[in-house]
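debug: dumping io for the single-chain case to check the tokenizer round-trip. Nothing else runs in this session.
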Amino acid sequence: ARMSYLAWVSSHDSLSLDEQLAHWLTPYSSVWMDMQETVENDPMATTERWLDHHLYRGRQLWIGSQRIVEYMATTSAPPRQLAATPVPFGDAAVLTSYTLRPGRLTGYWLLDLTWQAKPADKWRFSVQALNEYGQVVAQLDARPARLPGLRDQRVLTLPDDTQQVSLILYPSQTGVVALVTTANETSEFISLLTLQ
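debug: decoded output
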């Protein structure tokens, strides 16, 4: 399929930034944002901040001085997996709820995480897609609670051989996984989704 390239410039004085971007993105299920020499979370990057709050952030890559970020629009598909029971990751953080739903495009999933409080800056979460042999076939790592409301909205791209999607929490310096303790067991991860 042929990709469209859209250059967006805030130029409609009669519309707010929210209205302009919402109108511009209406027909698209996904967009890629391309920025020149702009670091992630730059306070001057108002378009990126808006996209982070209204869409699901996907893959990010650098090509030279260009940073390219993928975003997916939300979908009305019902969640395949949801949980509202708090999950403690040791004394590092508590995940209060999550949902995982299919995206508009095949193989894409939309993940919502909500945390009880913002973990210390050293902590990262890792969402890992595992195949039938327990091998990691896709992975997404990020800082938790980046959005207002102590939330994260991320896009997962799951290969066809994905059997399970799990979530771990670890400090960036050591990588030692925070243990998850529930009423029944202690584990290094929680299972977000199992596919057959």
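debug: round-trip ok. The first helix runs from residue 17 to 25.
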